[in-house]
From TrEMBL:
Record has tRNA-binding as a keyword: no
Annotated Gene3D superfamilies: 3.40.50.2300
Family: Belongs to the bacterial solute-binding protein 2 family.
Annotated organism of origin: Aliidongia dinghuensis
Protein name per the record: Ribose ABC transporter substrate-binding protein
Length: 380
C-alpha cells in the first residue's frame, strides 16, 4: 500500500473538496427548467413544432453582458450579420438592457470558436450568441454554459442539441423550395449547377439535402454538378466559371449564397441564361429584374442576417426569466419572376452585397440599410 506524506494528503483532500464544491455549484446552476408553454411572445418566439419544449431560466437582474461568438466571416452575409447585431444592440430599448455587448469572429477554426465561447463563459458573461461552425462540436460547451447559468443561443448554423436555444429558419425547407421551383421551371430535367456554402456547417448540409431530395423525388432525369462557393460572390463566380469551362452547358442553377457571382460568371462566359434559384442578395435580384425578359428566370428565397437580432432578443428575454421555446422557427421570405420590384424586393441604389429581407415584423425588428451599413464588421 503506497504511503503519502502529510503534504500530499492535504493536497489530495483539497482536490476532493474542490471537486465537491464544483459539483455543488454546478448542481445549483444546472441550466433552464423545462416548463409548459406558451412563450412570452408567441408571435415572435414561434416553437419549431408542436412537440418543441419550453425553457425558463432563473431571472437575472440587468443590465446584462452579452457576447456574439461568430465563426466564419469571409462573405457578405456574415459581415452584414455582424453589422446588424451591432445596429440592434445600439437601439435605445435594447441598449438599456445591455451592460456590455462583445463581438468576436474566429474564422473557420472550430476549436478557436469553442475556445472563444468557453472564454466568455469563464469571464462571467450572462449570455452567448453563436453562429456555430459545426452542429455537433459544441455539446460540451452547452453543458458548461448550463452549469454556469449562462444562456446560450445558437442561430443560423445551429447546434445539434435540445439543451440550448436554437433560432433558425427551415434551412432544409429553403433547399426544398429551390428544388421544387427548379422542377417546375426545368420540366424535362437536365443538368443543374449547385453552388454550395461552407462545408461542414448545418446550413450547407440542410439546404443541399433539401434540393437533392426534391430533385430525386421528381422522377425526372436531373443530375447536379456541385461546387463550393462559401456563400461568397467572388468565390462563387470563380467556381461557376470553372464549372462552365468543364461542363459547357447547364439547364438550371442554384446557389446557397454568392448568387450574384454565379450569374455574372454565366454572363462573362457569354452563356445563355438558365433558370436560377438562389438567395436574397440584392445584386442577384437586380440582375433578375434586369434580365428576366432575356431568359434569367429567378426564384430568390432565404432570410436576411437580421435573424441575429432575434437571437439577441431571445437571450435577453430568457435572462429576464420569461419563457421561450427551445427551438424557434423564423419565417422565410421569397419572391419569384416576374415580381422583382425596385424599392420592395430589391433596391437599385444599394450595393450588390446587401442582403434583402432584414425585417421580422412579428418580433418588432426592422432595419434600414443605413442603420446596418453604418456599423463595422470588426471585433469589439
Amino acid at each position: 500500500m503506497p504511503k503519502f506524506s502529510a503534504a500530499a494528503a492535504i493536497a489530495v483532500a483539497g482536490l476532493l473538496l474542490g471537486g465537491l464544491l464544483w459539483g455543488a455549484g454546478t448542481a445549483q446552476a444546472a441550466g433552464p427548467k423545462t416548463v409548459a408553454g406558451p412563450s412570452k411572445d408567441p408571435t415572435c418566439f414561434a416553437p419549431w413544432t408542436d412537440k418543441t419544449k419550453f425553457f425558463q431560466y432563473p431571472a437575472k437582474k440587468g443590465p446584462y453582458r452579452v457576447a456574439l461568438a461568430n465563426g466564419f466571416i469571409g462573405n457578405t452575409w456574415r459581415i452584414q450579420m455582424i453589422k446588424t447585431a451591432k445596429a440592434y444592440a445600439d437601439q435605445p430599448s435594447v441598449k438599456a438592457d445591455l451592460k456590455e455587448f462583445k463581438v468576436v469572429s474566429t474564422g473557420e477554426d472550430i476549436a478557436a470558436q469553442i475556445a472563444a465561447v468557453n472564454n466568455f463563459i469563464d469571464s462571467g458573461y450572462d449570455a452567448v450568441i453563436v453562429d456555430a461552425q459545426n452542429p455537433t462540436a459544441f455539446k460540451s460547451v452547452v453543458r458548461r454554459a448550463n452549469q454556469a447559468g449562462v444562456v446560450l443561443v445558437a442561430f443560423d448554423n445551429t447546434i445539434d442539441t435540445d439543451e440550448a436555444i436554437n433560432v433558425n429558419v427551415d434551412q432544409k425547407g429553403l433547399g426544398e423550395y429551390w428544388g421544387h421551383w427548379l422542377v417546375q421551371t426545368v420540366p424535362n430535367g437536365g443538368t443543374i449547377l449547385e453552388v454550395r456554402g461552407v462545408a461542414g456547417t448545418s446550413v450547407d448540409t440542410d439546404r443541399h439535402e433539401g434540393i437533392q431530395e426534391v430533385l430525386k423525388a421528381s422522377g425526372k432525369p436531373f443530375q447536379t454538378v456541385e461546387v463550393v462557393g462559401k456563400w461568397d460572390d467572388g468565390t462563387a463566380q470563380k467556381v461557376t466559371a470553372d464549372a462552365i469551362a468543364v461542363h459547357k452547358h447547364f439547364d438550371g442553377m442554384t446557389a446557397q449564397g454568392g448568387s450574384t457571382g454565379m450569374v455574372r460568371a454565366f454572363m462573362d462566359a457569354k452563356q445563355s441564361f438558365v433558370p436560377a434559384a438562389a438567395e436574397t442578395e440584392n445584386g442577384f435580384r437586380k440582375l433578375c429584374a434586369a434580365h428576366g425578359k432575356e431568359g434569367l428566370k429567378c426564384a430568390s428565397g432565404g432570410t436576411g442576417p437580421a435573424q441575429v437580432a432575434v437571437a439577441i432578443k431571445t437571450a435577453i428575454t430568457a435572462l429576464k426569466g420569461d419563457i421561450v421555446p427551445q427551438s424557434i422557427k423564423l419565417p422565410l421570405a421569397h419572391v419569384e419572376d416576374p415580381n422583382f420590384k425596385d424599392g420592395d424586393s430589391y433596391f437599385a441604389q444599394q450595393t450588390d452585397n446587401f442582403f434583402v429581407g432584414n425585417a421580422f415584423p412579428t418580433c418588432g425588428i426592422n432595419f434600414t440599410a443605413q442603420e446596418i451599413m453604418g456599423q463595422s464588421e470588426g471585433n469589439q
